[in-house]
Amino acid sequence: MIYRPLGKTDLMTGTLGRFLAGNAGFLIIASICFANAASGNTSADTSRQSGAVFHVNDFGAKPDDDADDREAIRAAIKAAIKAGPGSVVALSSGEYRIGLSKQELSEKPLQGKAPFNKRRFIHFDLNGADGISIKGNDSRLLITDPRAVLVNFQGSRNCALSGISVDLDPLPFTQGEILAVDRDAHTFDIKIPDGFPLLGEYPWLTLGPQSDWQNRLMVFSVASSDNCDHARRDVPMFCYEFRPRLASIRDTLSLEQIGPRVFRIHSKQPLAQAIAPGNILVYSSKVGGGPLVDAGGQHVQLEDVVIYASPGFVVSAASADNLQVRRFATRLKPGRLVVGTSDGIHIRATRGGPRIEDSVFEGIQDDIFNISGNPLPIEEIVSGTEIILHQNINAFNRGRIAEGDCVYAYAMPEAKIKGEAHVLRLGQPKSGSKGKSLILDRPIPGLLTTDMLYSREAGNGGAVIRSCTFRGGLRSAIMHMAGDGTLIEGNTFEYMQSAIAIRQSTESSRNGQGGMVRNVIIRNNIFRGCHMLGVGTHQNHPDAVIGVMLYPDSASRQISNIVIENNQIIEPGLYGIWLSNVTGATVRNNKIIAYPDSERLPGSGSSQRRSLRIHESSDIVIDGLVIREPRPDLGAGIAIDSASDGISIGNLSLEAGHAEEIRRNDNLTSNASAK
Asked: Cβ-count burial of 22 within 10 angstroms (0-12 exposed, 13-18 middle, 19+ buried)?
């Protein structure tokens, strides 16, 4: 079932159909030159300046012939790795088909009926490679089985991927217009257009017991100009998700085919109002988890790459030290509402970076960037200076640690840093535990086995996100949970649920993402229509365009040194900026603007909106803030709770009708901290 552009007879009717028909897509002319790339790392650039070129066509690959080219491309990669640093694997313009081998298909038949679990196949493996570049030269890769990693950079150094676009057939998602709804019978009918898999056609798109618990069943609609932000008008927006995912999909829904590409879905529960004729149902799967590209090497470069579909993460950047991403795009093809079914770029426990510039991201169903640390869970405290880490420390690239690292102890759920020490030695414990022994240069006072250790060196230091566009994602554009010295500059954020969430977690979990965030600069960005209004789903952070917080809420103030300057926030939701649990922040020369016909909060006479809220924070400087908020539901320009102290406010310009400029002792109610 090859993807083809949707024709007029395939498109859905109504406003949403007209939008999908008019979305002409995007073409990036890919550059193949890496020699002069300004990566800031001369050793990575030098390794690519010269070397042998291995053309995949010489190994039997042939574009545009409908034959599978995986083994030929693999052979070229193997030869390049053998030749050593500086070698180039070159593709020609045109389309190459990439599928699983007969042996792999025998292990997991494409039409198998068993529940779908972890993917464990790799198309192109660069593990252990040094200085190898794969140059696509404007080629297109069509992956004919979504159950494998496309390119694995784990364990590599100074490798690169450039000049390609990637699509999948079959897709890891499908979608269709809701044709009819019978609320008494708890049923609704949908039609799947050509170019999309049918419901139940593949094991990752079944309903009932076989479905993956991570699958998502969602509804999109198009808002009219009536009570809708300018940035969101005539745009398909996520408005409802069947939750909880496991119960809703596995236990409460079933389907039957009632016509050509038409299905009737039966629910054991009453149907939400969002399930209405003309809206679009989207059903997506992570296909067992895992990334399309695993960038977990050192000094990996991704340039001039366009992704049209991805199962799970588009890019996994766990342990991806000094990752460089330029002119990268996740792009919606005409008629589609999804690109990636999980995070866009999942960044975890890196020793430097990443640096992401001049890129475009849309159609991502989770966080576009998720930046976190990895915990070092404690199994046993042998003495003040000897700790045995839990045996799963090496699983899933978790808890990167090296001799000489500075580790800090994070107490949960208090969200307090108890102290830090340096690692003198790593080894196997004498007790016979399967964990790892950690010898410190000094004790950490009050350390408990319930605390988590984190390495400062493996804490994503110096990340840069610059000159990118984020559009229409289903969660945060940037979910930042661990980092030191992050710069977020010159980006554009449009109709995201949340633009930037700087969040430290206070939840205790051995699989948790977390760490510490400090020294972050957010400047010269533009935000349009980023909020959660109209979204019927649980969120674990406030409805704020820029939100800095602990989750769940705590009296701790461990987040430090945050600078928010020269940003334009246009048509925010409940809050423009939210500062919580912060010690030391500067909010300078920002504008928060709405229009008289921008979206209002539900309920007559509501005055819940705050342009800037300060909660449980200290040492905050606000200078040069401009608020132009003509909507009547603004209660205060700046709201400060009774627990916060050391707040300095100067040069405030407020044009907001009857709203107060500054409201002090404005404490949160139980339902105001998060939706």
From this structure: exposed
Q: What are phi and psi of 204, to 5 degrees?
A: -85, -5
Contacts of 367 (CB under 8 A, 6+ apart): 343, 344, 346, 473, 475, 476, 477, 478, 479
The DSSP line for 246-311 is HIIIIISEEEEEEETTEEEEEESSPPPTT--TT-EEEEE--TTS-EEEE--SBS-EEEEEEES-BS
Helix (H, G, I), strand (E, B) or coil at 530: coil
Q: Is the pTM of this model over 0.70?
A: yes
Cβ atoms of 479 and 503 within 8 Å: the answer is yes
d(CA 317, CA 626): 38
Encode pLDDT of 314-345 as tens digits: 999 989 999 999 999 999 999 999 999 999 99
- Over the stretch 31-90, which tens digit does the pLDDT of each residue have? 323 233 333 343 444 444 448 999 999 999 999 999 999 999 999 999 999 999 999 999
**Secondary structure letter of residue 495 according to DSSP:** S
CA angle 87/89/90 to nearest 5° reads 130
User: What DSSP state is assigned to residue 59?
Assistant: G
DSSP H or E segment with residue 21 = helix 14-22
Q: Which residues contact 569 (CB under 8 A, 6 or more apart)?
A: 527, 545, 546, 576, 577, 590, 591, 592, 593
| Residue given tokens 């991927």 in the structure block | 161
User: Are 227 and 202 a contacting pair, CB within 8 Å?
Assistant: no
